[in-house]
Amino acid sequence: MAAAKLKIGVAGLGRMGKRHALNFFQSVPRADLVAVSTPDAQEREWAKEQLAPSGVAIYENYDDLLRHQGLEAVCVASATAVHADQAIAAINAGKHVLCEKPLATTPEVSQTVVDAAARRPELKVMCGFSRRFDESYRDAYAKVQAGLIGRPSVFRSQTCDMLDPSGFFVAYAQFSGGIFVDCSIHDIDLALWYFGEDGDSKVRSVSAVGITAVEPDLAKYNDRDNALGLVEFADGRIVNLYCSRMMAAGQEDTTEIIGTKGKLGVNTQPTANLVRIHEAGGIRQEVPQTYWDRFKKAFATEAVEFTDCCLNDTPVPVKLQTAVAAVRIGAALQESMISGRKIYFDGNGGRADEPRS
Amino acid sequence: MAAAKLKIGVAGLGRMGKRHALNFFQSVPRADLVAVSTPDAQEREWAKEQLAPSGVAIYENYDDLLRHQGLEAVCVASATAVHADQAIAAINAGKHVLCEKPLATTPEVSQTVVDAAARRPELKVMCGFSRRFDESYRDAYAKVQAGLIGRPSVFRSQTCDMLDPSGFFVAYAQFSGGIFVDCSIHDIDLALWYFGEDGDSKVRSVSAVGITAVEPDLAKYNDRDNALGLVEFADGRIVNLYCSRMMAAGQEDTTEIIGTKGKLGVNTQPTANLVRIHEAGGIRQEVPQTYWDRFKKAFATEAVEFTDCCLNDTPVPVKLQTAVAAVRIGAALQESMISGRKIYFDGNGGRADEPRS
Amino acid sequence: MAAAKLKIGVAGLGRMGKRHALNFFQSVPRADLVAVSTPDAQEREWAKEQLAPSGVAIYENYDDLLRHQGLEAVCVASATAVHADQAIAAINAGKHVLCEKPLATTPEVSQTVVDAAARRPELKVMCGFSRRFDESYRDAYAKVQAGLIGRPSVFRSQTCDMLDPSGFFVAYAQFSGGIFVDCSIHDIDLALWYFGEDGDSKVRSVSAVGITAVEPDLAKYNDRDNALGLVEFADGRIVNLYCSRMMAAGQEDTTEIIGTKGKLGVNTQPTANLVRIHEAGGIRQEVPQTYWDRFKKAFATEAVEFTDCCLNDTPVPVKLQTAVAAVRIGAALQESMISGRKIYFDGNGGRADEPRS
Amino acid sequence: MAAAKLKIGVAGLGRMGKRHALNFFQSVPRADLVAVSTPDAQEREWAKEQLAPSGVAIYENYDDLLRHQGLEAVCVASATAVHADQAIAAINAGKHVLCEKPLATTPEVSQTVVDAAARRPELKVMCGFSRRFDESYRDAYAKVQAGLIGRPSVFRSQTCDMLDPSGFFVAYAQFSGGIFVDCSIHDIDLALWYFGEDGDSKVRSVSAVGITAVEPDLAKYNDRDNALGLVEFADGRIVNLYCSRMMAAGQEDTTEIIGTKGKLGVNTQPTANLVRIHEAGGIRQEVPQTYWDRFKKAFATEAVEFTDCCLNDTPVPVKLQTAVAAVRIGAALQESMISGRKIYFDGNGGRADEPRS
């Protein structure tokens, strides 16, 4: 007697979509990948070779995916611009939803997903903040919860990609919401998590600066390739973000959580594995080349746990409201970086002209 | 249309047996755990709770397991003393076999498994040297193969367990073959692998020394809690082994492969994950507490790949003859440690009285 | 025939003054410590025991020190409030000067030292930015100069002291100029050095935030115990500073210089020495407990090289104007942190109301 | 009133001799380098340029050095073959002696130095085991003494030089006593120190193996370029040595002291300084290129402390008898490596034919 499995479909088969599809296909024992959809003919060709032989249905239109017989859940892994629409359509069709980050590039649109989900409380709707499922970040979180570092007060975190000499990310910048929304969103989510602000952040101010050190063309899309940000919370905590698309060694995503009694570092000396190479020039450790290399195990855990939540009817581990708060902060940092001005908040989610005393 | 799955049974549900059973149960999509066997009533009770609800059959007798309808493969995870008998019985019954290390505590008995397997070349028979499936050891192997360090010439490796204050390992020493056969066998297998001696080692001499630093009672079973060994190969390569049951920090299994042009270190600064704890006293990194903590992912890969070999009819990645060579070396080191004498080989697998010139 | 030695006096025998005095006394073969001065009776008592037996003169008044027969150079290591006055008096008296950082807590007063020095070009006048004499920072600088990381574009650096539970730094905050002027001044100097802006920085804006996580009383002196700052340079480079008085493990002064082709980290995993302690709980490395522990060798090198410059009539390795630029940036960061406002510069050293486009 | 200084001469101005001479010349405030001697004309030329201008006398003959007016101490840094003779001549002439390691390549000749010193107890005679003056080794020693790791029981240590492609060490092997006497002597001395066996070691057995992986010509001088050794002590402690002349990255001298309650590692991940280079290929740390690079600070401390002992009439920190014990062990390891046989001791310093029970 086989246990029940979650019938899931994946929308979008771009870089991340393929990975999500393969994850549900191979690495989630309790999930049954039954269908995928993508408007891109080449991506459908890939699916025909990789997935169709095992009976996975392939659709051009997302609406057809939603109508797939017996479908219970959808993983939205399409372009950011349609995340919110597709998530809301799935919710309205009564499907559980795992939506890639960010929900949208503005907090207002992101909020519409939360509102839709609120109308269907029986559904599981989660934004895929993959880092929350990484075992090192979880170990650090458990240590914070256990009081090991006292009150976490300063949070410093970076998402730094290896330089892609193809310049792919320039074109991508038009739609990504900018480097703070695309990259630092992960660090912002972590800050909200570690600071216990899930779903309810009280930001006082943000400020940011950025440069185009290697890709001047980013400027025309109001983006930068290296940026630094500061976020102040009303309860006396501060956040420092760094995002970059210029790393030479690989993906360097590091985090420090500094408390009144100690500090935790996560991946502060990035490493791909336990091998050290002693050679002319010294001792070398390799670094994961991509975000996926660093977090592929976390993505698998995310898929497994989302599936478990749907099947067991338990709450998802990431509050959906947090995904809105993270976009609000990320978008404000992006605005501050471009305008050159510090942005103040009034404590009720609105803007203020002046610092609050 | 679901793909074919390998129907597998697990023999023995002790510490390692439970882990193997759960691995095949949960983490190997192409395997179907259909049955388990153990003479121990408590272990069967565990299986009734954990496995029976999903339809896994539970047997007291190993022979009944072998007769289970449709069984195609067996994982032998019982006490070392019965490894060889159970593996041979399974082979004779026409089952693929994954046998926990060592095949036996003597090379002669180990060879009987190889001989049995040779009579059934259509079966997959593999000794489970888990470290070969660890991604860091594999990365190091690929780098050696790529010529990164020139000719690997000196191999230094250790298997050092955290001190178990219960003294469990004293009683265990009666049956384990001793610390070199129980612990260093992994390092010996790695040396044979990295030196390209798989299945065909040409050892010139071994010598070893040991002490009982924390557990004097080990002496009565001709065992030690800390031991060092040297192995000389006929082609001018040397091996240095360290095994211990006395570590304070955790499982410290480290390896260095030293070649004419460079050196590779694997896990030379043991670490459980990417978290660093800054606290009074300094910066601390946690260490895996057990062999399982360190290698659980490798065990899962081992199970997945063994399953693939059976289903796809491809060669297993570890030559069975190597498992005999490793026991021969380990047993000779144990003998040298106890007798205090260096042991010489004649180049044809036999002993010699003198060093060969 | 003994070589000529530099006759030097040390003003101030507080914590740092004692160290400077002992350095010149013991570790600078070409220097002759001939006199010290301090208004503090206890400090003079210390000098009577430690220095007087070897013939070092002890003065209560700084002016008497300056009049000491044959004195050629002065090390100003007194309270920050009198740095500038004492340095100028020494210059006017025709003495070479090594002045502890900062020259003063405002750029205006700092500039008066530069002006005084400009009138006596034959004298060596240097602000003691000790980190420039550390061998790791120097190695990193040489690598930057050699082009190893392309154009240095992002500079991240921190000066983080171990928590002093005595609260000494609260009283100290009244006179220190604040945490950015007292601590981050080192990081700012390094940024100017690595960015090639020595003596001539073109800052566009600064912004900062801070909190009192462990010492609320700091607020009454307009200071904080943890602060983060951003500095934008006109030529498209950015700086990120972190300063703290709350570290649990020890002095954590780390720096990252990020260029278009690579990155250099200095002390990113702080360590006191090469010892690693394997114990229950994991593997631990100790961290220097104080700034002095971390940089004592650099202070000795600073003293040796300053002495050599005086005796050999060669230029000092740190431009004096840089010390003013560093105070200007540090004081602006402190102001921004307290006011909550971002501060803009007009490109000519003056303030602006708006970001420059 | 200047303090008294120790008038010292240096014998031998080869690689190490030059360093010792410069050390006493520049870095030892209480020493006065008054004379040097060397039979080598080129080395005397070097001394004429570097030392003579400051009044250091230069001799061709060692006997003339000993007759230098007012000479109080000698640093013997000549070829190993004349260490003992020169040390004894200095002792007989009433000079304090700092002798480079080893005293000689045989224990018998080494003992003659101890005997000569015993007849002149008022003189300070020390063998320069530089590692004892390294701050990390000292920190580890203090921790052992404080009981941090329980009873030190297993000692693993290596002296591994970077490959010198000139093959210099082949010719050198004729006179060095072999790799165990030349390189591992340091590790043996450390083992005796940490195990509390200073001057009085009770070895049960030694065994060793070696290969010529990169320099086959070494075989003709009965030497090897990579060797491993085991040493057993009568009180249940064991030592594992590794020495090599083949490292690619640099000087890799690492040590582990393993006790019943913990373990200390010294330099287990060798590093030249605190800089980390992030570049294509990963993160790299440089390694000291030579023994001198790694230990130059220890050599300076050694010179300072030896000078202090002579001037203050305090005991030298390294027992002279230990230097004999270290040579005895090193020479036996070398013999075992070449003969292929394990060597047993009878507990009274003599050899035995059989292992003692």
UniProtKB/TrEMBL annotation, chains A, B, C, D:
Keywords: Oxidoreductase
Any GO BP annotation: NADPH regeneration
Gene Ontology CC terms: cytoplasm
GFO/IDH/MocA-like oxidoreductase domain location: 137-264
MF GO annotations: nucleotide binding; oxidoreductase activity
Record InterPro entries: Gfo/Idh/MocA-like_OxRdtase_N (IPR000683), GFO_IDH_MocA-like_dom (IPR055170), NAD(P)-bd_dom_sf (IPR036291)
A Pfam short name: GFO_IDH_MocA_C3
Domain Gfo/Idh/MocA-like oxidoreductase N-terminal intervals: 6-123
Top-rank lineage group of the source organism: Eukaryota
Protein family (similarity comment): Belongs to the Gfo/Idh/MocA family.
The protein's name in its UniProt record: Oxidoreductase family, NAD-binding rossmann fold domain-containing protein
UniProt source species: Hirsutella rhossiliensis
